[in-house]
Amino acid sequence: MAEPGPPKVAARPAEKRGYGVPMEQHERPGRPGADRGDAGRTMLAERRQRPRWRQRLSTTLELIRANPTGRVALKIFIAIAGALVVTLGIALIPLPGPGWLLVIAGLGVWAVEFHWARRLLGFTRRHVHNWTQWVKDRSLGVRFLLGSVGLVFVGSVVWLSLKYSFGIDVVAEALHYLATH
């Protein structure tokens, strides 16, 4: 026979409180009722704790999304902010610096509101992580070779950008300097 224990209760969806925000987001450790173990909820100690600023941001976004006008305004704001960051990143890709980092940050901004951006960001993270792991597993010589190829590529992009954008041929100037001195 089975041992007696607590009755099995089907899990209920989280109760809502004002603006359609789940109760768990309103409860914090130390507040009355925060460590209740009701049938449909998990205890806070069992849940993965998110940093406080992320909880506040999540709650604020849910409050904005609960209002139809706020939902549309949020989508427009996120679309414009993400587009600005991605555009700036794309403009900086040919130059040495944080071009790709800004493109990925722009995807992160878009991922707040758009599912396709969230999927693309996950895809990018996986591939960057796999690439980093692959490079770490290689010998020092292979890593040096990869770094050298990267530096030659960045140098070529900078040289071509200066030559065709500003009319400054750095290689010709360097050769001229070496020939005259």
State the main characteristics.
181 residues, two-stranded antiparallel ribbon, elongated, mainly alpha, single chain, 3 domains
Q: Compute the average pLDDT.
A: 78
Radius of gyration: 26 Å
Assembly state: single chain
Tell me the strand order in the biggest sheet.
1-2
Helix-strand sequence? EEHHHHHHH
Largest sheet: 2 strands, antiparallel
Describe the structure.
- There is one protein chain.
- This protein is mainly α and 181 residues long.
- The protein folds into three domains: 13-66, no CATH class; 72-137, no CATH class; 138-181.
- It has seven helices and two strands; from the N terminus they run ββααααααα.
- The chain has helices at 23-26, 52-66, 68-92, 99-111, 115-136, 140-166, 170-180, and strands spanning 16-17, 21-22.
- The chain has a two-stranded antiparallel sheet.
- The longest helix is centred in the C-terminal third of the chain and has 27 residues, at 140-166.
- Residues 14-18 and 33-37 have low confidence and may be disordered.
